[in-house]
Amino acid sequence: MKKSYILMLLMMLVTLSSFAKKRLSDEEKIINEVWARTDMPEFDNHNVDPKYKDERVVVLAEYHELIGDAFNNNTKIALANIKYKMLTRQLLKINDNSAIEEYSTIKYKNNNDGQKNVVGIRIFKQNGKVVNLNSNDYIKLNSNLKARKQNSDITKIAVPNLQKGDLLEYFFYSEMESYGWDKGIDPMTYFLSSNEATQSFRFHGSFDSPSRVRYTTSDDNIIVKNKIEKDRYLVDVESKDLPKREQVKFTNKYRTNPFFRIFFSKTNMFCEDQSFDNNSKAGVVRKADNKIIYGNGFGWLSFKSFYSGATSTIEAAKLTSLWARDYFKKHPNLTEEQKADALFDVYRNKVLCIYPYNGYSEISFLNRFVELLSEFKIQKSLVLLPNNNYFSADNVIRGYADEYDYAIMINSTGKLYYNTFSDYPSASDKMPQYEGETAGICKFTGKRLKLHFKADNNEISTKKIPIATPEENKTTYTIDAKISDENPYALDVNREVALYGSGRNGMRKKLGTFVQYDSTIRAYYDIKKTAIEDLRASKMPFSVPNYRNYTEEDKTKIERMYEREAKNYFCNNVEKVYDYKLHSLGLVPNDTVLRYSSNCRVDAMIKNADGTKVISVGHLLAEKNSFHYDTERKSDIYFNNTFKDEYNITLNIPKGYTVKNIDYLNKNTKNDCGGFESNAKIEDDKIIIGVSWNINNIYFKSSEWSKILNILDTFDEFYSSSVVLYRSE
Amino acid sequence: MFKRFIRKKGVLILLALLTLNSFYVSAKEEKIKDIEQYLPLLEPEENHIVIKSTQEIVFDKSDGNVSANMSVSKKYTSVRYGDYYATYVAYDNESNSINSEVVTAPRIGIRHSSNTTSDGIFYDGYNICTLSYSTIQKGDVATISYKVNYPKMFYLSRILLTEDLFTLNKVVKISVPSWLNMEIKEFNFNSSIKKTITNKKNETIYTYSIDNLKAYKSENRSRSISWNQPSLLFVYKSANVSKNKEVEFFPTAQKQYEWYQSLIAQNVEITDSLCTETKQITADCKNDKEKLATIYEWVQSNIRYIAFEDGMAGYRPQIAHEVFDNKYGDCKGMANLLCKMLGCVGIDARLTWLGTNDIPYDYSTPSLAVDNHAICAAILGKDTIYLDATNQYLTVGVYPSSIEGRPAMVSNGVNCILTRIPEVSPKQNTDSVSIKFAIDQNKLKGTLKNTFKGDNKARFLSLLEDNDNELMSTLHSSGFIGLPEKERNIKVSSLSASDSTISIEYPFEDRSDLILADGKYYLSMDLWQNMIYGDVDIEKRTTDLFLKNKKVYSYVAELEIPANYTVSYKPANKNIDNPNFSFNTQYIIKGNKLTYKRNLTIKNPLIKKEQFKEWNNDIKQIKASYLEQVVLSKTADKKQVSKSKKNNKK
Questions:
Q1: Which one of A462, B568, B583, B630 has the minimum C-beta count within 10 Å?
Q2: CB A547, CB A538: distance < 8 Å
Q3: Average pLDDT by stretches of 10, chain A with 729 residues
Q4: What angle separates helix B331-344 from helix B272-281, to the nearest 10 degrees?
Q5: Cβ–Cβ < 8 Å for A644, A470
Q6: Rounded to 5°, angle at Cα B249 from B247 and B255
Q7: How far is B423 from chain A (nearest CA, A)?
């Protein structure tokens, strides 16, 4: 056994070393070819524009090349096996030590089997000498000898003798093959901005067929030239003088930086064929259809393949169906929306219960949900949702939406049912990441997603996902604070928190347990069976111990979760959490508000001045404003969601102390972006402070920054405020 | 060898993130009864435990060489809910290799990852064997066992008697054959470790047994695991490898030095061009002192620390001219280059080995576990100056806290000199803040100047470099307060490594520490508040507190008292002085100026567990001092107050 193992290892080493020799000569050939190329004249310009002379690094030239050729018979479109050749080349001027440090180690990652990776590096010294890096300096790290795939190699290169004033030029060249069902490199995204100023940027694509690729741009200022020349489809993008990215808060990388994308996938090519970019309704159908048949990790596998594989959703749907037949009989007056809510909540709960936290296929989850809706004759549509956190599209129809998500809409009211992994969602949850986006809507004619799904122009529409109002995303804090008996510098603070909007989903995950979630759903929907009984009734009996393990583990974490929540709120000044409680998960129609309370001792809230106490009441607000803002801003402003935070604060004045004028706590800034308002009064032995602050939208033009700054500044002013308790004379 | 401890830890973290390649084998079913009996022994979040851990070490001789074999076997179960586990064994196929890996559980995985170099090291040739199993149910038993072979036994220099899970019983058995002369040194032992020695005809068996061993958890602000956990250090002296042949290993530090020298002897150093260039670099220097400083600075700023530590490169310094040409090297390579360059200009410079403050051992127990770093010792007249080029920001004679006071082995021809790096004064690492401000429109406005020296300077410059020299973001992340909006309003001194201090100065504005209520100003004079989160949880903490380095935080704030106002209350001065640190504050009124001075000096960064109560009390006093407010009242008010007080007295 031992001998055969050693022999195997030796064979592997011999094989690898013989590959290494071959690769070395290939590498040298490619390196020489790239350096000898004359079609990249921008790399001959070694002059730095005077306006960039103080930058730590200047990119003098950046070039990307992408060549795609089919190598099997299905050259037309969808199932082509494609060989890609990719080249990225950069010429940099190194101006300071931090740049030397950064560029003296170059790393790149190899991702696929059979991929050829070549790196060329050379340094132009200030005395005119050119130093070519020897490929012996390359070190491969983290390969996995015993695993079947060597799928995570990292190559590290130590760049020798790099000094200030040097020009560093390097390229990565790689070749890879992608098979019909494989998503491969799709899509390739090229940003026309980076953290360094770039004097020249160029992309060149060359493909064996115009049907091979499709491209999109983030805005109309990016000019993409294409032509057919010598039977090649050529795509070119060129730009000069690209400034550094602005480093600001409240931003969205994909919306504030120009980029273009090259798509290879058959899905998108179908769409292109159908004039997707021209707002064709058919394009949406095609796209939807193909995504569901082929998309997202399932490749070209038949629908049945993943259908049979997703046991947890099948079992959950069966159990839900049985339950719903009975429940809907008992509640004959439910509206379509109430029925859909019930189906979603119960079905989702059963899916989580059967296989908690381990996820499932997004498609299989939605498919079962569609089937349930079909069973109870609820008309629905598939919704394709651009996700505003991931890419720049504001319109699916324009064709950017290669990474869109899915939802199901019931047609009668337009309500959307989202699919999210790992949290404890409910039918009432809204997902801010889709707000403001235009979704593509495809009505179902059949009872399942694909089997009877046909393109029908009459059934296609679009829908703008509304942006939640601040009121809809409201959070209220009722805070009762008094000076601690244990620590004269601390306040005992009891917080009652109620979340009404999009914050609920995340907070359920932070503070809730699956047992609470499960019991809430079962109680509201009058489900007699326990989760364990459901599991036993399903064909997944092995899930019973998994479920028990999961719920037991959940129990051990609760205390720490509340401690973390309190520390996050009070900037780590929490000395002790006395008690906590989750009153409601805000899951079900008769109780959609997530409520919890936390009682803790917060240190450093009281300052002393000869017996007078100065209490940092501003610090009773959840801190949201601890970073630096520049008054000047060029890029537009993106918030994750709208919000309205309301505080009702009661500070108990201890015996022997009095409070005088607290008018300075009253603040008011309001504009069309939002506002901050606080009102303080003294009632008996209490200081009562009401605070409300809100941001009204998720997107603002950069010209609105001063208004937002006014609001943030007022928040900051209040946050810095204290009240003074005088010793009674 | 170098940075090994850091590396191993880093590798484990890296590997923990890797997914496992699992396969199935049949397992013998075994179940623990009455599993709940163990619950009282565990922390609330502990679930998975080791029932039995055995580690056996035997030695073998062949062909004049001595090898060591370590067999490890562990039985696991879970006590609250089903759980999974993975353990990681590092090997490099040169100093050690792994074999006979077996995992028994319903679903298991064994995976080898090669070249798993962690961050901070460029390349170390290390591989990791991951032994894992998927969830086993409460009370079920899984086992993991493997063997590690050390072809030269001195690569097995120590073992830690710890486990990362609660362990009901751990046994370590070391069989020392009579032909092997070695010593087993015990560190950080306590009464829970039972030791037995069994003398047999041809061997002596040392057995260490521990019951109910708590899981090792690293704690914040703590020294390395080697300082805190029990360990066994192996000192290999000699072996009768054959009838008439005795081989000496490291009976003394001198022998260890000779082994290092034998590795260096294999280097072919060509110094002609190196010396030519070194002489050019030092052409303008008037004396040896200047030459030394110039060469040190040149290496600091031109040679980057990139650690190649695979195989013997972990022990053998890189050749000097290669480091010079590449402009990078590890600590040994950089130290060797420094020595050679200094030698080129006639300065006596010697390669020096030492263990950083992560290592609790010294050369009285010679072993490869004793050192993990190399520097250069330059001899100028009667002075020996230690030069650590891996720290690119410290000037000559300023020693980083990682090496100050550490035992060192300095080359001295055929012999070595055992000595210590000098201890440093806290003043070497000074962080001084000086603020001058006045009250202007209910804000504190003025100027702030922060000056750094020593480790504090190095830390700031390192952070700046990590932030791509973005000054504003560095200042924000370093906790600078009241910064101006524009970077152009910030004055920065030269940030050269050769300057002993650096300073940051800017117009300061802050509103958070000033309250105007009822016509009086309440304000904190201490806006910097060093060491605010210093207290420890006495009940939970198991290790000494380690504050990294000796240092001085000096803070002076000068307030211009507004016209018509006077200081109606100033807090009492504070003074705490103990062997670990001193803290004192002073409020001085002179004319229309109120000056606050605060000095916090860490004299000894190690706070022992038995000092925690006193430490917490002191920290409480410091925090209270920071929360003291100055009150400024209108002059008339003060008169009224004094009048009323006088009236009250009457």
A1: A462
A2: no
A3: 36 37 66 93 94 91 91 52 86 88 75 68 90 68 39 67 90 77 62 90 90 74 88 92 85 82 51 28 33 28 36 82 95 96 93 62 77 91 69 36 71 88 79 82 62 41 87 97 95 98 89 91 93 81 78 86 94 92 94 96 93 94 69 88 96 94 92 97 95 95 94 91 89
A4: 80
A5: yes
A6: 120
A7: 30
How remote is the C-alpha of B594 from its chain's centroid? 41
pLDDT greater at residue A111 or residue B213: B213
- Residues of chain B in contact with residue A628, where contact means CB-CB under 8 angstroms, are 472, 476, 483
Residue A709: φ, ψ to 5°: -60, -40
Nearest to B376 by CA among B342, B330, B327, B422: B342
Rounded CA gap, B161 and B144, in Å?
Answer: 18
> Residue B575: how many CB atoms within 10 A of its CB?
11
Long-range own/partner contacts, residues B193-201 (CB < 8 A, 24 or more apart): B193/B161, B193/B230
CA–CA gap between residue B588 and residue B567 (Å, rounded): 11
Q: Least CA distance to A630: which residue of chain B?
A: B485
Nearest to A256 by CA among A197, A193, A196, A198: A193
How far from each other are the two terminal CA atoms of chain A, in whole angstroms? 91
Return the H-helix or E-strand segment holding A228: strand A224-229
Instruction: Nearest by CB to B517, from A2, A489, A724: name it.
Output: A724
Cα–Cα dist B183/B319, whole Å: 35
What single-letter amino acid sits at A69?
D
> Quick check: ipTM above 0.90?
no
Q: Token digits for A341?
A: 């809510």
Say whether A607 and B306 touch across the interface (CB within 8 A): no
Q: What does the alpha-carbon distance between residue B324 and residue B636 come to, in Å, rounded to a whole number?
A: 73
pLDDT higher than 70, residue B230:
yes
B107 in Cβ contact with B124 (< 8 Å): no
Sheet bearing A606-609, strands edge to edge? A606-609, A612-615, A723-727, A657-659
pTM beyond 0.90: the answer is no
- The answer to whether A137 and A170 have CB atoms below 8 angstroms apart is no
Segment holding A339, helix H or strand E: helix A336-354
Q: Evaluate whether A419 touches A405 at the Cβ level (below 8 Å).
A: yes
Nearest-CA residue of chain A relative to B138? A549
Structure tokens at A437: 């986006």
Task: Identify the bridge partners of residue A600 per DSSP, sorted by sequence position.
Answer: A493, A577
From CA B283, how far away is CA B388, in angstroms rounded? 23
Cβ <8 Å between B468 and A102: yes
Tally of CA atoms within 13 A in the half-sphere of A498 that contains its CB: 13
pLDDT at B257 exceeding the cut of 90: yes
- Distance between CA atoms of residues B437 and B257, nearest Å: 59
Nearest to residue B98, comparing CAs of B85, B117, B116, B111? B111
Asked if residue A345 lies in contact with residue A587, where contact means CB atoms within 8 angstroms, the answer is yes
- Tell me the three state secondary structure of residue B125: coil
Q: Residue B471 contacts by C-beta under 8 Å, 6 or more apart in sequence?
A: B464, B487, B490, B492
Specify whether the CB–CB gap between A704 and A638 falls below 8 A. Answer: no
Token pair for residue A79?
């199932």
Q: What are phi and psi of B638, to 5 degrees?
A: -65, -40
Q: How far apart are CA B599 and CA B426, in angstroms?
A: 12
Select from A190, A214, A185 the least CA-distant residue to A201.
A190
More confident residue, A29 or B14: A29
**Ordered DSSP codes for B540-598:** T--S-EE-SS-EEEEEEEEEEPPTTEEEEE-PPP-EEE-SSEEEEEEEEEETTEEEEEE
CA B255/CA B450 separation, integer angstroms:
49
Restricting to A residues 666-685, those with a Cβ less than 8 Å away from any Cβ of B are none
Q: List the structure tokens of A332.
A: 């004959």
- Residue A70's DSSP bridge partners are A82
| Residue found by looking up tokens 């130290």 in the block | B335
